[in-house]
Design a protein that fits this description.
This protein has 195 residues and is α+β, with helices and mostly antiparallel strands. It is 26% helix and 33% strand. The strands form two sheets. Strands 3, 4, 5, 6, 8, 9, 10, 11 and 12 form a nine-stranded antiparallel beta sheet that branches. A three-stranded antiparallel beta sheet has the order 2-1-7, with helices on one face.
């Protein structure tokens, strides 16, 4: 091997190591409004995006990030500050961020409690926003078709079993000032049965 080739390989390897090191605490990739993927079904710590809790994650792994929770309704635990999780078969199926989580946890898209209604719409988009009441806004994602859908609650309530699990949703609740008090990432089964 020539000296020039060895130098080139060593330089390339060093560059890859530097790039990998620089990206270890990087913010999540920016996501386009009016799109959705399974990556959206996660929260992360605002100070370290590597510390994530994702839909489908085991309770054991979720609690490595969240700490020990207090048991609430069956299969539900609350964690400080302001995070609630519902588990089904010991896997995360619902993650809620309440006001107390502001500045500590965000959704993978960057939404957090206290954010304005307009700010949430800017992140998630307007085309598929469902606003059934003044203080609520939902987004539904069909994992089978891999598309956001603008379904009515009545249509979704006619689903059962696996079909309910195949609909992911982002649900937000706002106070009188239009600030998010709760942001919930869950599947439709968790939304309708709390399990």
């Amino acid at each position: 091997m020539t000296l020039k080739r060895t130098y080139t390989l060593l330089t390339a390897a060093l560059l890859l190591l530097v790039l990998a090191g620089c990206s270890s605490n990087a913010e999540p990739v920016t996501m386009e409004p009016d799109t959705f993927t399974k990556q959206d079904m996660a929260i992360y710590k605002a100070v370290n995006s590597k510390e994530r809790v994702s839909y489908g994650m085991s309770r054991k792994d979720a609690e490595k990030v969240l700490g020990t929770g207090n048991k609430g309704i069956p299969n539900s635990y609350t964690y400080d500050p302001g995070v609630s999780v519902i588990y089904r078969d010991d896997k995360v199926v619902s993650i809620a961020l309440r006001k107390e989580s502001q500045g500590v946890y965000r959704t993978a898209r960057g939404a957090e409690a206290g954010m304005s209604h307009a700010g949430i719409k800017e992140l998630y988009g307007e085309k598929y926003a469902i606003e059934n009441a003044e203080n609520y806004m939902d987004y539904y994602y069909d994992t089978v078709t891999r598309q956001l859908v603008k379904s009515s609650v009545k249509e979704l309530n006619s689903l059962s079993g696996e079909a309910l699990r195949g609909i992911y949703m982002v649900s937000t609740v706002y106070d009188e000032e239009g600030k998010a008090t709760i942001i919930i990432l869950m599947d439709r089964q968790a939304a309708t049965t709390m399990k």
